[in-house]
Amino acid sequence: MTQPVVSIRELKSRLSHYLRLARGGESVVITDRGVPVGRLVAIGQDHEGQIAALRAAKQIQWSGRRLMPRKPTVLIPAGKSVAELLIEDRE
User: Fold this and answer.
1) Rounded CA gap, 31 and 70, in Å?
2) Are the C-beta atoms of 28 and 4 separated by less than 8 Å?
3) Of the candidates 23, 25, 18, 26, which has an alpha carbon nearest to the alpha carbon of residue 2?
4) Within a domain: 49
5) Which of 54, 83, 88, 90 gives 60 a disulfide partner, CB atoms 3.0 to 4.6 angstroms apart?
6) What is the pTM of this model?
7) What domain range is 15 assigned to?
8) What is the pLDDT along the chain (91 residues), one digit of tens a residue?
9) Distance between CA 49 and CA 56 in Å, rounded?
10) In 23-36, which positions are buried (b, 16+ CB within 10 angstroms) versus exposed (e)?
11) Is 13 part of any domain?
């Protein structure tokens, strides 16, 4: 299933058509002189519904396993806040 790609001019002239596609669950890529600048998608779908739609479109896959916990990449010294560390770094 490919996403429809539409120029701004065509989108303006056939907006109702592309809104129907978005309501139907398709996402429409909007281009300006051939360069993608936006995407028209339906709203109101929760995250689980969005993930289910992506799975159905075979755009994502998941093994069902939980992710392994990651070690923090930055350790904050005891007694200091993140804001204080940012201020120190900027000085």
Assistant:
1) 38
2) yes
3) 26
4) yes
5) 54
6) 0.48
7) 1-62
8) 578 899 999 999 999 999 999 888 888 999 999 999 998 988 766 788 778 878 887 888 888 889 889 887 777 778 888 888 889 889 8
9) 10
10) eeebebebeeeeee
11) yes
